[in-house]
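Long-time lurker. I teach an intro course on protein structure, and each term I like to show students one example going from raw sequence to a predicted 3D structure in token notation. This year I'd like something fresh instead of my usual example. Would anyone be willing to generate the tokens for the chain below so I can use it in lecture? Attribution to the forum is fine with me.
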Amino acid sequence: MASATDPSRSEPGDAGRGGAAAMRYALPRFNLILDTVIVIAVAITSFVFLNRPLDMRCLVIIGASDRDIVTGFHGAEISQADGRPFRWTTAEATVRLPAHGTTDHLLALHLAAPTGAATSTLQLVAVNLNRTHLATLPVLPVPRVYRLLAPRHQIVIAGNDITLRTTTTRVPGDRRDLGVVAFAVTFAALNETVWLPPVQAAAVSSAALLILIALRMLDVGALRWIVVTLFAAISLSMRHSDLRFAQRWEALLLTVALVVTFALFAIVIRWWNGKHSASSIHDTQPSQSQATTRDVSVSALTSPPFHRSHSVFHLLL
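-- Reply from a regular --
Happy to contribute to a lecture. Here you go:
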């Protein structure tokens, strides 16, 4: 008589069931491996694309490229001597410039005092950086560049207000109250910001990872890989084409906000799934007890009748 466990007598369906079980086991592993590969690829691509030297210098031509960043100036004019644009300051004029890192900056002011001043040919100009006195410059009628050191503890990443305060005079033939002539302002970082590109690459990679986790918890299939790829491509293209520190910093803050949002989303999904699973288990417990009661009742009905002689027989034994 052949054994029930004889391999030679196994049914043809056993091999098919074994192959299906192997596929069910291999598919989650393949998805996990592909998720890991995508996250690693995003991290490497982010580091390569974002590891570029940023612009360390901002040049503003007063009267030409100063739209929406100057206040307290008169209208733009053109110098008759060399055709350069310029503006006259009032008693208080301000130029708002972005930071180029968290390091020390060099502030260069191209200024000139009015040549027709009645009081003196030398005019004092107090320079403030973000409402903090930086220096007082003796401005001469001859145009020249005045350079000042802006220490890092006075630098504001969101924006820096360069304020010029001076006395005003009136040039013959001009009824305006004129301060000094401003030709250009330069704001340059003295050292590179080496920490920003790696931090940005880590932020983009973390955001991609959390998106992948959230979509995986929602049982999203191959579509999650497309979503993560598009997110990484858009993020890197926007940051790769803009080398300004201020824009990179704002982009970093946006990416960190996305990381926090996706993390909270994943936590909420996990909490919701756990709560739903607990409620499902609680709902199935009464039905299981009822099924057990029914089984006992059925077995009691189908069992042979109990006779007193049976018990006596067992006692005799």
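Some talking points for your students: The CA atoms of residues 212 and 284 lie 32 Å apart. Confidence is low (pLDDT under 50) at residues 296-303, 305-317.
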